[in-house]
Structure formats: structure tokens, C-alpha cells
Amino acid sequence: MIIEVLGTIAFAISGIRLAAAKRFDWFGAYVVGLVTAIGGGTLRDVLLDIPVFWMQSSMYLAVTGISLLTVIIFKHFLVKGMRTLFTFDAIGLALFVVVGIEKTLAIDYPMWVAVVMGITTGSFGGVIRDILLNEEPLFFRKDIYATACLAGGVAYWLVSLFLPNGYLPSAACAATVIGLRVLAVTYNWSLPILRVPEQDIPDDNKWSDNHH
């Protein structure tokens, strides 16, 4: 529960901060922060066929409201600069990957499903956030983002093989996600871009004309 609340705060602030940069009003910023915080967990619970987590408690709506109030009060510190956004996004990403993995394992799914649900929980809210803000989703860029979630899931699995109980698997997962995100930004790491020759790219207008 503590991890989930902290992740909600971190992701909500990252979404609200971006909405503020786009000059959204308070309600619009709240909505962006909320979908950033609950989007990944909602998809996870639907796929796992379990009750959607935020429908079981109003806490998540309240926490997002507190996050909005925090940004309003400390806007000069939280809104300026990309470093603040990166910090909250990386923390939220790491914590939600842990939550996704542990919730999936708790209902007896295999580890590979848990890793997929960890990636979904951590990243899908950010995809919705970027779409609402008319930005190219970070998930689909060359940045080490979803790959960091995958690496965190693998770290959780490896540590749990030797130390199945306690907090070490969760700590290893979170540290791996945050560490990879920090290293990727610091050293400009990225995945290769899928490139094709320009002459092989179909012309959308010609395709559209041929299919009218």
C-alpha cells in the first residue's frame, strides 16, 4: 500500500507538472495527473480479471488531489526544468513496476506474466498522459524506458530465486529501473531506431486515393 501511494504521488506529480507546462487549468491538470497515476494499474487489473484497484478506495483520487495542491503551492520548484519531471517519473515508474509484479504473483500467475504486468503498470499511464498532452509517447521513443521496466522485472525474478521472501526482490527491481533511467539520460543511451529506406516508405496520400 505504501509503495502504491508513493507511486501514485510520483506519477500524478509528473503528469500534473507536464499539464502545467502546457498551460492546462486546474481540472485539466488533475485529470492528466489521475490518468497518469491509475492508467497502467487499470489496464493491469482488467487483463488479470480482478477488481480495478482505484474503484475499491477513493484514496487514489484524494492522493492525486493532494499532488495537484502540492504542485500549485510549490510550482516554482516543481514546474520548471526537466530534471524535476524526470525524477518523479523515474520513481513512479520503478514503484509501479514493483506493484504490478507483486499483484500478479499474488494471484498465482507465472513470473513472465508478472514481468509483463509490471511493464504495463509502470508505463501505460505515461502513454495515456502523453497522448492527452499531444506528445509522442515516451514508451515508443528510443529512450531506455520500457526496457528499464523489463530489466527491473528480470532483476526481481533473479533475486527472488535466491531470496524469495522479504523486500530484496522489490528493492532490486526498483533500483534497476531507476538506475537504468538515470544512466540512460546521463550517458544518452538509447535503443537503435528502426530505419527503412525513404523510397520504401509508402505515401499515405497515394494509399488513401487508391482505397477510396
Indicate the topology.
Layout: H1 2-21, H2 26-48, H3 59-73, H4 75-78, H5 82-106, H6 111-132, H7 146-162, H8 168-187, H9 204-210
Helix pairs in contact: 1-2, 1-3, 1-5, 2-3, 2-5, 2-6, 5-6, 5-7, 5-8, 6-7, 7-8
C-alpha termini separation? 53 Å
Number of helical elements: 9
Low-pLDDT residue spans: none
Tell how many strands the DSSP assignment holds. Answer: 0
Strand content: under 5%
Mean pLDDT: 86
* Major sheet description: none
Question: What is the helix content?
Answer: over 70%
Word description of this protein:
With 212 residues, this protein is mostly helical. 72% of the residues lie in helices and 0% in strands. It contains nine helices and no strands. The chain has helices at 2-21, 26-48, 59-73, 75-78, 82-106, 111-132, 146-162, 168-187, 204-210. The model has no long low-confidence stretch (mean pLDDT 86).
Question: Briefly, what is this?
Answer:
By secondary structure, this protein is mainly α. Helices cover 72% and strands 0% of the residues.
Key descriptive features of the protein:
212 residues; 0% strand; 72% helix; mainly alpha
